[in-house]
Amino acid sequence: MSKASETKQETKLLKNSEAKKISKPATKGLKKAETPKLGLSKTRAKKIKHSYTVKDAENAILLKLKDGDVVIEMFPEDAPNHVARIKELVRAGFYNGLKFHRVIDGFMAQTGCPYGNGTGGSGKKLKAEFNRRPHKRGTVSMARSMFPDSADSQFFICFGDCNWLDGQYTVWGEVTSGMEHVDAIKRGTGSNGEVKEPDEIISMIVIADI
């Protein structure tokens, strides 16, 4: 996103040029046995898995942040290709350790760039799946450049209602638990929300895999 005016464009998502690719993305065709797991005992993992009430564990993500756990339930019926790709990247451990490089108070927290500056991705562009899901508090949606079919791995979580984004970015999930931990993500002080010494994703895992 970039600024188009001093009001709304301060809160528009990245409009960078073509996202840079990381070398040899090794996420395609991963077998379940190859997917990384959190370092938990079986007993502890079972307790964690059953402590979250989700509609479909296969389409729900546990996002671990410095202040606590966040549950994101995904919308495969509205954005099937995006959900499939997010799960593929999560299972490859792609997001673990990535920074919330752009965070604007009252608007959103953005992450998913392997370079930590908003210029990178996994190397696989996704065709837009714009849908009727609104951008509201807790919405999880894909960042992109000015080109509709340019979403890759970067996504953002809305702190509040952002209805001016509706129909222009692909909504693929919603925070259903732990939004207070998203609220605690360090804000940016740069001109476009850039964060100095940003918070990181500790890990992301599909709840069905715990």
Q: What is the CATH topology assignment?
A: Cyclophilin
Mean residue pLDDT:
85
CATH class: Mainly Beta
Kindly state the percentage of residues in helix: 10-25%
Overall body shape: globular
Strand order in space, largest sheet: 4-5-8-7-9-3-2-10
Elements, N to C (H/E): EHEEHEEEEEEHE
CATH superfamily label: Cyclophilin-like
Structure annotation, total helices: 3
CATH architecture: Beta Barrel
Using DSSP, what is the number of strands?
10
Cα end-to-end separation: 34 Å
In percent terms, what proportion of residues is strand? 15-25%
Given helix and strand content, the structural type is alpha+beta
**What is the alpha-carbon Rg in Å?**
16 Å
**Largest beta-sheet characterization:** 8 strands, antiparallel
How many structurally independent domains?
A: 1
What are the main properties of this structure?
210 residues, alpha+beta, two-stranded parallel ribbon, globular, Cyclophilin, 8-stranded antiparallel β-sheet, single chain, disordered N terminus
Short account of what is shown:
The protein is an alpha+beta fold. Helices cover 13% and strands 20% of the residues. The strands form 2 sheets. It has an 8-stranded antiparallel sheet with strand order 4-5-8-7-9-3-2-10. The protein has a two-stranded parallel sheet with strand order 1-6.
